[in-house]
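ERR on first pass: missing label on line 2. Operator R.T. fixed the label and resubmitted. Corrected input:
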Amino acid sequence: MNNAVLILLTMPFIGAVLAYILGKIKKPLAFWTAEIVGAILFLASLVLFFKYSNTVIDFDIPWIHYGNFVIPFGIYVDHLSIIMLLVATGLGFVDIHFAHDYMGEEKDQARYYSKVLFFIGGMILLVITKNLIGAFVGWEFMGLASYVLISFWYYKKPAANAGMQAFLYTRFGDIFILAAIAILMIYAGTTNLVELNHLADAHQLNKTAALVAALFIFMGAIGKSGQFPLYPWLMNAMEGPTTVSALIHGATMVNSGIYIVARLFDFYSYTDALYVVANIAALSAFIGSTSALVQKEIKKILAYSTMSHLSIAFVGLGVGSLAAGMLHLVNHAIFKALLFLSAGAVIYLAHHTKDAWKLGGLIKRAPWVALFMAMGSLSLAGVPPFSGFFSKEFVVSAAWKWGNGFTATFVTIAALLSIAYITRLWILIFLGEPRNEDIAGSVHSPSNLWIRLPLGILAFITLFIAIWQGGIVHYIVGKEVVEPEVEGLTAFMLSCMLIIFLIVVGLYVKGLNLLYKIASHHFVQTIHQVLFNGYFVEAMITWISKNIFVNALAASARWFDTYIIDYTVNITVPITKGVYNIFKTGHTGRIGAYMGQFVTGVAIIVISILIIVKGL
Amino acid sequence: MSFIILIAAGLIVPLFYRSNIFIAKTIAVIAFLTAAYFIYQGQSLNDIFPYFDLNKATMLMEFALLATLAAVSVSLTGFERPLIAQMLFLAGIALALLESNNLFLFIVLFEAMAIISYILVANIRNFFNAEGAIKAFIAGGVASGIILLGFALFSFVTDSFNYANMNVNGKYTLIAVAIMLAGIFYKLTVVPMHAWAADAYSQVNHAAAAILSGVIKSVVLVATFKAFYKFLIAYPLATVLIFSFFAILTMTLANFMALWQKRISKILAYSSIAHSGYALIPFAAAASIYSYAGVLYYAIAYIFMQTSVFLILNDFRREAGVKYLRDIKGMGKRAPIHSLFFTIQLFSLAGIPLLAGFLAKAVAFYSGVDAGLWGVVLIAALNSALAVGYYVWIIKHIYFDEAENNQKIEMSAGSLISQLILLTGTLYFGIVASGILGATISF
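pass 2 clean. output:
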C-alpha cells in the first residue's frame, strides 16, 4: 500500500486515541498531538498531490471474505479525491490550529481533539474509498463525529438536543444509502463507485433501478449536506463549538453529499437523477439565502448561507456541469472556513456573545479580523476578483444554459442575495457603536499566532486561488472546460449586487430607524417569522414525526407490545405454575411412590419394546 | 498402571485424615496427575487384563474426569475429608468403566460405581442427609436388580460379552437390552426413574452431590453409549422411539419442576435431570455420525459445570448457611468471586455461547438434526429457553437484590484453585471444539 495513503487511513484514528490518552495525562498535549497529526495528514495529502497527480492509485482488498460472500474494500485516489483530501486535511489543520485559543478555556480538551481527529479520519476514508460500502462507513463515522461534536457541551440542553437532532436527521438520510447499497448489489452486482460509472457509460444498467439507487443516495446527500427538507439540523448544529461548525458544518462534512454525487457523476447523468438534484438544490438555495437575511445569531446566518451555497454547488452538478459544482465546492469550503473562523474569533473576542445585534463597533478592537472577514464576505458575495465570483458565475451561467427556468431563477436569486446577508452581518458586527454594554469595555485581543495567522492564510488563499480557477477545473475534470456564455449575465449580476449592496449599507448604516419602521409592519412581521424559522420546515418535520410516528405508529406498536406480547409473556407464569402443579403430584418424597414410578417406567419400556418387537 | 496408582493412593490417603489434610490432598492430586500422565502415555488396563480399550475419545473423557476430581479434592474441608479416598477409588473404577470393552465388566464396574456412590452419600450429618442417602440407596438397589435381570436375560442369548462380538439379533436381545437400559436410566436420572435424584442431590452433602450428579453421571453416560452403541444401531426404530420419548419427558418435566423450586440445591438437582434429557438426544440419534461426539461433548461439558455449581453451593452453605433462593440475595456484593464463578457456570448450564454448555448442546442437538429428529430438537431448544428462566432467576437474586446481611464471604485458596480448574475446562471446551470432534470422528 502506498505510504501516504496508509498514513491518511490510519493516522487520524491513532491520533485520536493518542490525543485522548496524552490529553488526560497533561492537558496541552492533546492540542499538540492533534496539531502534529493534522500537519502530517496535510503533508501526506500534499505528497499525493505532487507525486500522484499523473497516476491513479487504485487497488482492491476484500474487507470480509466468507465463502462466496465478499464485502470489498478498495482504495481509489484520483484528482477528485486529492482535491477533497487537500480541502479536508488543510482546513482540518487550520481549524485545529485555530482551536488552540478558541478552545483554550475548555477543560476537556482531550475529548475535543480526539473527536476532531476521528472526524477527519472519517472524511478521509470517505473520499479515498473505492466502494460505496467503504464510503458508507466513512459517512457514518462522520455522522457519529458530528453528533458527538455538536453535543460536545453535553451538559447544555440545547447542545445535547441539537446533537440528537443532527443524528436523527442525517440517519434518516443514511437509511436510504443503505437501501441504495442493497439495490445496487442486486441490480448492478457491484457497489464499486468507479465500476458504476463505467457501467453507466456503457449503458449496462437497469435504468429504473439505477434511478432509484441514485435518488436514494441523493437522499443521504440531502441529509448530510443540509438540503431541503432535511436542513434544520444544520442550523441547530451551531450549538456546538464554532471551530466544529467551521470544520464540519461549514467546510468539510457537509461537502460529502456533493462529493458522493460528483464521484458518481456519470452514473447520475445516465439515470436522469440530476434533474431532481438540480431542482431540490435550487429550492434549497432559495430557502437558505432568504432565511439567512433575517437571522440574529452570527452562526445561524453563516449556517443558512452554508446551506444556500452547498445548494449552489449542487445546482452546478445538477445542471450537468461537474466543473462548476466542484469548483464552487472548493471555493466555498475555503471562504466558509474563513468566515466561520472569523466568526469564531469575533465570538471569542466578545466573550461568547453570538447574537449579531448585540455586537457592533468591533472594527476598532480587531481591525485585522474585520479585514479578513471582509475578504471572506466578498468572496462569498461573489465580488470579483475573489474566488467566489468565478465559481458562482460559472454555476449561474451553467444553470441558465442547461437548466430549466425554475432552477436558473432560484439559483440566481440565491446567488444575488448572498451579498445582502453577508454585508448585513459584517456591518452589524464591525460598524456602528457597541450595542451591548458588557462588551463595550473589555474584549479579548486576538493573538497573532493562533487567531490572525490562520485567518490571514485563509484570506490569502481565497483571494489568490482565483488565479488558478481554470487550473482547478482542469485538474478535477481532466479537460479544459469553458464557462458557457450567457449574454449580459455578468453585467446583470454585478449591477444587481451593487444595488442590493447599496440598499443594505444604506439601511444598516444610516437607516436603522427606517428599518425598524418597516419591520414593525404586520405583513413584514409575518414574512420575517416565516424566514426566521426556516419556512417552518422543522416544525413540519416535528409535527409529522410526533403525530404520525410517535403518536400513531409507535403508540400502536406499544399497544401491541403491552397487550399482546407482554400478555403472552405474563401468561407463561400461570401456565408453568399449572404444569408444575401437575408434575408435582408425583414428587411426594416417599420412596415407595418413587419406586412405583420407577417400576412403571420399566414397564413402559418393556411393553413398548414388546409392541415394537411384535410389530417387527 | 493408573488404576493401580489411584487405588493405592486411595488406600494410603486415609492415614493422613487425622494428622494433616493438606498431605492427603497433595497425595490425591499427585495420584490424579500421575494417572493422567500414564493415560497420556497410552497405558491402559489392557496391559494387565485384555478386556479394555483406550482410544483418544476415552482419553479426553478421562482427562476431564481426573481434572474434575482433582478440583473437587482440592476444595474439600472439614468433615468432607473421607470423600478424598472415595474419589480416588471412584476414579480408578471410572477409568476402568470408561475403558471397558466388555458388557460383563461394564455391569460389574457399574455396580462397583453404584456402591461407591452409596458410600459417598453415606457421610450423614443430619436428618436430611440420611433421607437423601436412603433414597439413593433404595433406588440403586432396585435398579441393580433390574439391571441384573436384563443382564441375565441377555447372557442367555449371546455368545460373547465383548462389544465387538455381542449377538444383536437374538430373539430376546432387544427386550434384555431394554431392561438393562431401564436400570441404567436410574443412574442417568431419566424420568420416571428420576425422583430419588431430585431428593438425594439436594439433600446429601453438596460436595457428594457434585460428584454424584456431575462426575458419576457423565461417566455412566459415556460408558453406556459405548456399551450399547451396537444395539442402538441395530434397532433404529426402537432406539428413536424410546430415547426420544424419554428425552422429551425428562427435560420437560425437570425444567417445569425446576422453575418453581425455592431451594437452590433442588433447582440444580432438577437442572441436572433436565440435562440428562438433553444428553439422551444423541442416543436417539445414534444413527448419525455425530452421535458419539454429542454424548462425549455433553459428558465433558457437563462434568465441569455441574460439579462447579455444586461446589460453589457447598461453599455458600458452609460459610453462610445458604439453602433457599432468598439466602443468596446480594451475594454479588458479599461474595464477588464466588458469584462470578457461579454466574459463568450457570450461564454455561443455560447454554450461553463461548461456554462449554453451549457447544455441548449445539453438538448434541446437531446430531439430532443430522438423524432427522427435528421435532425432538425443537422441543429441546424450547426447553433450553425455558431453562434459562430459572438460571437467570438465580443470577438475578445474586446481583440485583439487596442482601439481608452484609457479612463478607472469603474464598479459600483451595476453592479458588478448584474453581479455576473447572472454569478452564468450561471455557476451553466452549471455544475449542476440534479436540472432541476430531477424536470421535472415526468411531
